[in-house]
Amino acid sequence: MAIAQVTIVPLGTGTPSVGEYVAAVHQVLMDAGERVKFQLTPMSTIIEGELDDVLAIVRKMHEVPFQNGAQRVSTSITIDDRRDKKGTMEQKLRSVEQKLKQ
């Protein structure tokens, strides 16, 4: 199971506001059904799923700003792909929270 953090920044849009682009990109995740879990944050999106699914969805997400008029898109991806045990977004948070209580 892979966990990826994705930030997609449309450039050349003529405005500093990107909310409409973020909403359009987020729709790709909503359309993905149960293939991945995701969490929108104020600065990026966290996606959890099989690596092939995550990468295919990120590719679709990257194209959305172009389809909506952006002239340039900068996409940053960080992938945590742990293979010795199953890792989830919730498991990672619980692990840190448990350590904070010690």
UniProtKB/TrEMBL annotation:
Chain ranges of the Thiamine-binding protein domain: 4-97
UniProt biased composition (Basic and acidic residues): 79-102
GO cellular component, one term: cytosol
Region (Disordered): 72-102
SUPFAM superfamilies registered for this protein in UniProt: MTH1187/YkoF-like (SSF89957)
InterPro entries cross-referenced by the UniProt entry: MTH1187/YkoF-like (IPR029756), Thiamine_BP (IPR002767), UPF0045_domain (IPR051614)
Assigned protein family: Belongs to the UPF0045 family.
Matches recorded under NCBIfam families: MTH1187 family thiamine-binding protein (TIGR00106)
The protein, known as: Thiamine-binding protein
